Amino acid sequence: MRAAAHYLNNLKLIPILFLFFFCFLLLLIFGSSFQSSLQISSSTPPKNSDFLEEKQSRSCLTTPLSPACTKINPSLAHALVHYATSNITPQQTPKEISVSQRILDKKSPCNFLVFGLGHDSLMWTVLNYGGRTAFLEEDKAWIEQIKQQLPSLESYHVVYDTKVTQAGELLEIGTKEECEVVSDPRFSKCQLALKDLPNEVYDIEWDLIMVDAPTGYHDGAPGRMKAIYTAGLMARNRENGETDVFVHDVDRVVEDKFSKTFLCERYLREEEGKIRHFTIPSHRVGLARPFCP
């Protein structure tokens, strides 16, 4: 999820058009999903600030003319201020963001897993307001840096043991029979499955998965081969329903070939710029379903 600016010192300024688009996007999504998010309950008592915020929000539902109803939600306000004062350009374009935003508009609050932690992470969290958004990041130092700025984000450190130069070999491995067996990635016999992610990642059925990491733009980088395969395996292994999987940077060879091969071209729903959207159904409800239709 990090832009190349994390490695280079030459940072781009956010285009004014993108800022206006993002502000409008957040206001639109917040308005449509806010009421449904209030239905989510927590097993632990809320903090005082959260309780007051929820109390105020609920009162707005019953007394829409109350002055309190005109106040912007603190989470949304924080996101707007963060991006209005940032000089970093998010990795995806407004059109690319709109692809996953439309799905979040329908499904949020939901479970959203993102491979990569970066300048757009707060945006994804707010667009999934009331849901659970978790980030997987390869750079431990980068996690600490982001946590200092945005301590509320849920993120986990992940170690990848591959390199982009191994893509051809891994693509061939993915054609073996064991790689078409649908199971929990932890117990998969396929070498492409990521088996050392935090248990929290495996124990949740994710409604959306975004693959925008690990680093994959040079030969020595880990590449997204295993991330793409594992995202598809998680989607197939859910008990029922379907998972929306997004892959960014499909203009690159690895992202192009691995997304088409392991997320399946028949499951491809949309492509905009450098992002592809796949909708993958559960394969546990139909044991005779082929890995790719």
Quick synopsis:
This protein is of the alpha/beta class. The chain is 40% helix and 13% strand.
- Based on Cα principal axes, name the global outline: globular
Between the first and last Cα atoms, what is the distance in angstroms? Answer: 30 Å
Strand percentage = 5-15%
Number of strands: 7
Mean pLDDT: 82
Q: Structural class of the secondary structure composition? A: alpha/beta
SSE order in H/E notation?
A: HHHHEHEHEHHEHEHEE
Low-confidence stretches: 3-17, 29-66
Helix content: 25-40%
Radius of gyration: 20 Å
Main-sheet strand order equals 3-2-1-4-5-7-6
Count of helices?
10
The profile of the biggest β sheet is: 7 strands, mixed
Describe the structure.
The chain has 293 residues and is an alpha/beta fold. It contains 10 helices and 7 strands. It has helices spanning 16-37, 48-62, 74-84, 94-107, 121-127, 140-149, 167-173, 199-203, 225-237, 253-264, and strands spanning 111-115, 132-137, 154-157, 208-211, 242-248, 268-272, 275-281. The chain has a 7-stranded mixed sheet, with helices on both faces. Helix 5 links the parallel strand 1 and strand 2. Helix 1 (16-37) packs antiparallel against helix 3 and helix 1 (16-37) packs parallel to helix 4 (94-107). It is globular, with a radius of gyration of 20 Å. The two termini are 30 Å apart. Residues 3-17 and 29-66 have low confidence and may be disordered. This is Glucuronoxylan 4-O-methyltransferase 3. It is found in: Golgi apparatus membrane. Keywords: Membrane, Transmembrane, Transmembrane helix.
